[in-house]
Fold this protein.
Amino acid sequence: MSLRRVALGVLLVGLVLSFAGCGGKVVNKSNYDKIKMGMTVSQVEAILGKGQQKVETTGGLPPAPGMPGMPTMTTSASIMVWAEGKSTITVTFMDGKVAVKAQSGL
């Protein structure tokens, strides 16, 4: 067998193994640990893929008592879930940034 054929075989095996890993689970402990407070939705989706949005809300907080003239603070929150089988990762975003993360079954 020629060296060229061996090299081609090794390359093909490597490609097959790398593509086999692409279909693996993304809802796992390793990916959960990559999610850090303050990350944006797009940064989390780069790790886990598109999530399912469960809740989205926007609300305003009135000025603090004794501070007239202060503007109303607006905040938004959303909860997104990634699930595979019995494993789930739930992330709460406040103003588009990770505020809370939770996992089950990892």
Summary: The mean pLDDT is 77.
